[in-house]
Amino acid sequence: xxxxxxxxxxxxxxxxxxxxxxxxxxxxxxxxxxxxxxxxxxxxxxxxxxxxxxxxxxxxxxxxxxxxxxxxxxxxxxxxxxxxxxxxxxxxxxxxxxxxxxxxxxxxxxxxxxxxxxxxxxxxxxxxxxxxxxxxxxxxxxxxxxxxxxxxxxxxxxxxxxxxxxxxxxxxxxxxxxxxxxxxxxxxxxxxxxxxxxxxxxxxxxxxxxxxxxxxxxxxxxxxxxxxxxxxxxxxxxxxxxxxxxxxxxxxxxxxxxxxxxxxxxxxxxxxxxxxxxxxxxxxxxxxxxxxxxxxxxxxxxxxxxxxxxxxxxxxxxxxxxxxxxxxxxxxxxxxx
Amino acid sequence: xxxxxxxxxxxxxxxxxxxxxxxxxxxxxxxxxxxxxxxxxxxxxxxxxxxxxxxxxxxxxxxxxxxxxxxxxxxxxxxxxxxxxxxxxxxxxxxxxxxxxxxxxxxxxxxxxxxxxxxxxxxxxxxxxxxxxxxxxxxxxxxxxxxxxxxxxxxxxxxxxxxxxxxxxxxxxxxxxxxxxxxxxxxxxxxxxxxxxxxxxxxxxxxxxxxxxxxxxxxxxxxxxxxxxxxxxxxxxxxxxxxxxxxxxxxxxxxxxxxxxxxxxxxxxxxxxxxxxxxxxxxxxxxxxxxxxxxxxxxxxxxxxxxxxxxxxxxxxxxxxxxxxxxxxxxxxxxxx
DNA sequence: TTGTATGCGTTATCAT
DNA sequence: ATGATAACGCATACAA
Lengths: 337, 337
Hints:
Two copies of one chain form a homodimer.
Chain A: H1 5-12, H2 16-23, H3 31-44, H4 50-57, E1 62-67, H5 73-88, E2 92-97, H6 102-114, E3 119-123, H7 136-144, E4 147-150, E5 159-164, H8 166-179, E6 185-189, H9 194-209, E7 219-221, H10 229-241, E8 248-251, H11 254-267, E9 276-280, E10 294-297, H12 300-315, E11 323-326, E12 329-331
Parallel strand pairs in A: 1-2, 1-3, 3-4, 4-5, 5-11, 6-7, 6-8, 8-9, 9-10
Antiparallel strand pairs in A: 10-12
Helix pairs in contact in A: 1-2, 1-3, 5-12, 6-7, 8-9, 10-11
The structure holds a DNA duplex.
């Protein structure tokens, strides 16, 4: 039942080279023999052995997708888009959900490297460490294959970055709030990585541009594991109870905004009349909340499309831009005026 | 820089067989030579070539994950759990998001088969066709590797089913509604596959057990592409406008319940006082809605864990149960009395 | 246009 | 305990 190329060649009365040629539709084969061989192939249901082919060509046309957490709606969306795109171009995707710990991420990269994937994409700026030396695992990987960062910035030979200008986008969102009269914008975030810092910088920038001072008490950090909807709600209730005043909430992720809406409900604050809320990612969560969440669209679809284009280009030996930046956009729904 | 086993053997002054032995830590190698070889291996950073190993062993320790849509929160959750579990056991996962069309699913299975994955898991009963012949692609795949169905039932040699008793679970949810006094439960669903039919059967069963007749007008089907939150809301508004009465909404997926809550808001119905709502999957959406959604937990975590156990057992040649059924459970939140 | 022969880097089977 | 060597199944340079 497990045919190989020799079996086919024998049955078709040709050499294995000829079989190989029709398989890789080389032009140097007569129409009659092609037909003859194809008939045998289809008759037997023969499929070439991927391992043997991989060994010979030193590639199995596979891309490694490294994802901190595939159950995050934003990353899940990216995953779906990347996988579909890559497969359509003839590449399969090896998935590795590493979590956010450095050691696990390193191990994930190592594993993909050992499997000789043709390239890999690191999903999210989570992958970039502040300490330059902590990124050695990326530099190392980039020596043996192209590495593409989704929403991360990292300058290194053979690594390519495709991202949204988070600072600009967050500045726009902050500015919208400020310009609609809000003066005390509570900022909720749960990451201090590159992207996280850029967002915060955008928040500050919008204030600075308008000559408004930022009250540092309005900056509220949640650790990844303490950021459930209810925990956010309770924290805000506590903050408000302690006298902290705010007339808007801006968050680095949509899910944190959901917590803010829970707070508003619990505290009896009308949204958006008494409290404006803006999220980030424009995820599928936005139309689900009540009222529906205004959010920053960071162009995930465009980013994913461009990642695939870039990867294929690089693998094809073309010259590709090392950094591509998309511009975010505020999508207004019901939590803003 | 790209060492192979010959390079190592030469530098260590042993044969490639010995290198291979230390690599696969065979007991038949003296401690001194092992040390000697290990030293060379670590000194050179040599990593065995995965393709060659695959060719020799006829396996690359890979599981194929077929997923209709990784951006569905339920499937994304399953994906994360399966991948983490499998990788921990030494298996990498090849992802294939096929969408819901039969042809695409077949192609996905074919691709994974051609890549000689060690086994595959089909995520969701979407994969099972009503017409027996439509499932030939699964039977075919099962001839060359174990196939595991997540939440699907299909009787065939070498295919294993791990699922939740949807009928029982939906009957429990329906019963809870009925017993709390609801009499006209609108049922929203968007799939007629095996799982979908079982759920509907549960809805009917609970009525029958209580001697209550089902008004067929209360059964409301949404096609996959017409089931956005807003479309569901608008449909319910229209239904109610046409005089259809209902005092509860029960849905086959959480996202449809979100639409029902939108309807309640738009129609000015108080939840749960005037309208009870129950979803299905107990997904991460549930605590996000307002009020928070009561939903059926279909034990996804347990299912995923069991899938991995089963797969490893089968690959290890052990006898494994062909069908494992978990019992769902109603998780009460704020949309029910 | 077609066939022959070799290489790809392992693992496994024999000897020794 | 260790070494020599034959698979594994394909692609491809070269020969015809």
